[in-house]
Amino acid sequence: MDNASLDFGGGAGVFDLNLSLQRGAILGMIGPSGCGKTTTIRLLNGIYGPTSGEVRVFGKDPLKFTQADKARIGYIPQQFILYPTLSAEENLHFLGGIYGMSASERKMKMQPLLEFVDLTEARRRLARKLSGGMQRRLMLAGALLHEPDFLIADEPTAGIDPILRARIWENFRALRDQGKTLLVTTQYVGEAAYCDKVAIMRKGRLVTVDTPKGLQRQAMDGEVIHLQVEQSQLVECMRFLEDLPQVSKTEHVPDESDGIYVFVEDAGKELPNLLAILRDQRGVTPKVAEPYMPAFDEVFVRLIQKTEHEHLEVAL
User: Fold this and answer.
1) Region of residue 126 (left: phi > 0; alpha: psi -120 to 50; beta: else)
2) Residue 74 CB coordination number (10 Å)
């Protein structure tokens, strides 16, 4: 996507999207409901065309896809759309028929797919009697039946429990390892850890696109060391550390009366140096001293706050 926008008017739509995804990788698109994730997907699969900018999938304009081009994409929408009065197996036969697969071809591909999504024992159960997680996995099997190169999954883990979410992500990573390319949207910020690259969206715009590690560095302006010292030494240590050239800033750890976050370029390299300096120059030995890896919920909040602050500075 090259500066792609779809402007519905009144501030609705997606704007100035710049995004690329290499073969054999998972791109996670993360953001709150209504931020533009589904609209972005509809630009990629040719349901909508951009009002400005360019969209290319397989090097082609999705609006000009042939049937063969469309067959290279598998799509899992947010809502369960298969036939509730057909069994899991019958639904897969129906989907295979849509793609022109013969009965023998469908049978051959169906068994390993049902095993892949752990639905072999439920193959004859009506779709409406499957649990929500099983319905999602059935849609995954249906999207893979025709062996697409590019799988798009729109919030496939929404509303299901963490154990089932982890199982679905195991499926996605296995597909990635088989050489498939995946775009997965989610509201669960923690799922960024499962992706090769992550796009964060807010209000129809991309906040940033990076690797999970890169997002953590962006959010924290480098890397972070977590220290715990005696409460009486807290303020003194924070001021002392902030004056060191290798430290960009310090923060008091929320909910810790004795905790300090120390922001540096390389936590692994600087941790032993800082401990030696604190010991030799201040006589302080921290009770806890470790590199800090922020949860992706914290990363998301910090990146959004930074973006809002930058926009405010521009406006002023």
Assistant:
1) beta
2) 22
Nearest to 92 by CA among 55, 54, 145: 145
Amino acid at 309: H
CA distance 189 to 187: 6
pTM value is 0.81
Q: Which fold has domain 222-311?
A: Alpha-Beta Plaits (3.30.70)
Any idea where the domains of the chain sit in the sequence?
Answer: 2-216, 222-311
Handedness of CA 261, 265, 269, 272 (dihedral sign): negative
Query: Edge to edge, what strands does the sheet with 249-252 contain?
Result: 249-252, 259-264, 223-228, 288-292
Q: What is the DSSP letter of 279?
A: I
For residue range 29-84, what is the model confidence (pLDDT) as tens digits? Answer: 998 888 899 999 999 999 999 999 999 999 999 999 998 898 899 998 888 888 89
- Strands (E) across the chain are located at 2-9, 12-17, 26-30, 52-54, 73-76, 150-154, 181-186, 197-202, 205-210, 223-228, 249-252, 259-264, 288-292
What CATH code would you report for 2-216? 3.40.50.300
Q: How far apart are CA 88 and CA 122, in angstroms?
A: 7
